[in-house]
Amino acid sequence: MVTIGEELDKAVQDAFTRPIPKSAGAQMRYLVKAHQHSTRRVAELLGISQHTVERYVKNQIKTPRPQLADRLEREVRTRWQPQIRAKAKQTAATTAGIMIDVQGRFGYTAAPGSTDDARVRHLTLALPPRHAARLFQAQASGADEDDLRLCPDCVAVTYCPGCTEGTPPQRDPPSRWGGALD
């Protein structure tokens, strides 16, 4: 399942002007450069030996293990083009908003099994700038995925204009909408 944090990162990554490095050697060289040319820091970050990092930098090893390849790509992606990333977040938070694709549990409070019963729905939403700013701010302050999920009014108000902002939808009666993001 795609998380809200991943969707926020994906929305920012659409603004990248260059693709991330493809080969393991190029990715490793980028990380070493990003960490002030310290192979020791990169080794600690990836959970491998410093000698292994040096061998990737020299292209003596070309194909990493699948787990290392995933970690390597994830670490490069989180550090890639920081100025463009910051500019994209600023634009999304002030003028453009963002498009996210999440799953949410929405529905009327009704008898179990009825068509109005709350169920998981796949949502593709254009969040306005004020909501994008709140989510980016929460993510920057270190909010984990559970904290981002507990901010359902950002998504609920966009999905259900009848919901009022500031009073997130509840799952229990007498509220009209159920609204926790899954």
Beta strands, count: 3
What's the overall average pLDDT, rounded?
Answer: 77
CA radius of gyration: 21 Å
- Along the chain, the helix and strand elements come as HHHHHHEEHHHE
Contiguous helical run count: 9
Low-confidence spans: 165-182
CA-based shape: elongated
**Helix/strand/pairing class, anyone?**
alpha+beta
Biggest beta-sheet profile? 3 strands, antiparallel
Distance between the termini: 9 Å
The proportion of residues forming helix, as a percent range, comes to 40-55%
**How are strands sequenced across the largest beta sheet?**
2-1-3
Percentage of β-strand residues: 5-15%
What this model shows, in words?
The protein is an alpha+beta fold. The chain is built from 9 helices and 3 strands; from the N terminus they run ααααααββαααβ. 50% of the residues lie in helices and 12% in strands. Residues 165-182 have low confidence and may be disordered. The chain is elongated and about 60 Å long. The longest helix is centred in the middle third of the chain and has 15 residues, at 82-96. The chain has a 3-stranded antiparallel sheet. The protein has helices at 4-13, 24-34, 39-46, 50-57, 66-79, 82-96, 129-140, 145-149, 152-159; strands at residues 98-108, 119-127, 177-178.
